[in-house]
Amino acid sequence: MPLNYNKWDRLQLSDDSDIEEHPNVDKKSMVRALQNKIHEEREMRKVKIVNLGAQIACNNVLYPRIQAIQASLESGDTDKPRTVYFSSLVEQLERNPSKECPPGNNPDKLEQTYDGMLLSLLRQVGDAAKVAVKEAGVSDDQREDRIGKALAEGIKEHVVRLKETIDNDSKELEQEQNEQKKHITSEDMRDGFANKYVPPKPEPAPLPIAAKLDNLDKPNKPKTKTEFEVINTPREPVAAEEDEFLDDDIANLTPSLEAFSKIPLKGFEQSFRFIQEHRDVVVPGASDALLGAAFKAQYDNKPKYAKQCVHQSLLLQYGDKLGVNGLSLFFKKMISGDKRAEAVFMDDVDKTYAHLEGRVKRSQEEEKKGGRETIMLASENEGDITFNVPSGPPPDELVMGEGMEDMDVEEVRKALQLRWDIFQTLPENLRTALQTEELAQVNKVLGDMEVAEAEEILERLDMAGIIPFSESGVRDETPAGRAAAGLPPI
């Protein structure tokens, strides 16, 4: 049977080489803007399809009920006058409304139920009929009959309009669905050829800290000073704050370890189930990483989470110490409610946490006496850090380059204005340093700031494109802007 490759015609592809760079906007920003536009249109279409479907479903429930009311008013088959029949319908909906409503609506709010919507329509038709008869100056003996006719005509008009609304919404929904099917997206991907063989999962790799600890244990290398101890552990943990060799990895938890660390104290059954489902928790270096996370949490004033990390680290260490099937033996005792074993374990947790707490307090005191942490910019290559310092707000006239006539000038102006506004909010000494376009001058100002303040300012500089760390932002390439930047005219 021949294969059908026509579906690949629905792939929405773009060639970045076809996009010419705008004098005021760099190419990467334009490509990103185009991608964002495509994704926004897709999301808006999804929302519209859902809303149209919900509106059609709601109207399809109301339409036959309004049709039935119209038929009763026009035929006059009821044993009551039309005005009395109409009033009784309104009274019934007011006194005993049903809570049936469209999906997602609140049944306790009358206006969101089907009966509430119908009641609103009947009140509107009734008020309009009374006003029309009053303005016509009908005599009292003919008033009831004329109101009845006006009610029938008003309901009929709404029946026609509702039918038109349903038809129009159905056509629009079909158009949006057809447009959605024109292109293949990730949601359309399905499994094709597959077999039933599932290869066994590979053994989880040790954490990076495990290899570093092994290197530290070699006789040729000096051993790291132990900063906090764990009772009944086969190996003493390493202090996270003093060994710079381990700083990058000791508190860097994997997603599974991070979830494991958040299990509450004495949650032995929950911990055991988690370990059974996540083999990458019981790997070399996991217990040390949890102790490092405990140290960092205590340092960040999160004592509850710090103690949980200590608790989970000791769980792994006890299982490792008990040898083969050590975890099963340990959890069997804990889950069965062995009070003596639990008391020994929790006493170890309390002592280890108390030692860690004291060590963190001493470390914080030592830090206050010493220097403080600062942020500095560094660049291995000269072109990695560039300066796009604005000299003023965007000029009145922005020149659009050849091939870029379709660009929205006002959007470009907004980007340039944003850069200038952010630059104006910076401290005066930092603005002066940026205007020199010398990294050393900028670092000198950043070094005098607190870390949080410096980080926040760097985020603003990156957002405005004044110092883009990954890519360039919007540049002022107009004659005035190029002259201010010391560039030759185009």
Automatic annotation (TrEMBL):
Cellular component aspect of the GO annotation: cytoplasm
Region (Disordered): 169-193
Gene3D superfamilies recorded: Cdc37, Hsp90 binding domain
Listed InterPro entries: Cdc37 (IPR004918), Cdc37_C (IPR013873), Cdc37_Hsp90-bd (IPR013874), Cdc37_Hsp90-bd_sf (IPR038189), Cdc37_N_dom (IPR013855)
Primary location class: cytoplasm
UniProt subcellular location: Cytoplasm
Domain Cdc37 C-terminal: from-to ranges: 387-482
Highest taxon of source: Eukaryota
Entry keywords, A to Z: Chaperone, Cytoplasm
One GO biological process term: protein stabilization
GO molecular function, one term: protein-folding chaperone binding
Any matching Pfam family: CDC37_M
Domain Cdc37 Hsp90 binding: 195-374
Residues covered by the Cdc37 N-terminal domain: 2-196
Stated family: Belongs to the CDC37 family.
Alphabetical list of PANTHER family matching this protein: CDC37-RELATED, HSP90 CO-CHAPERONE CDC37
Protein name per Swiss-Prot or TrEMBL: Hsp90 chaperone protein kinase-targeting subunit
The organism of origin for this protein: Mycena albidolilacea
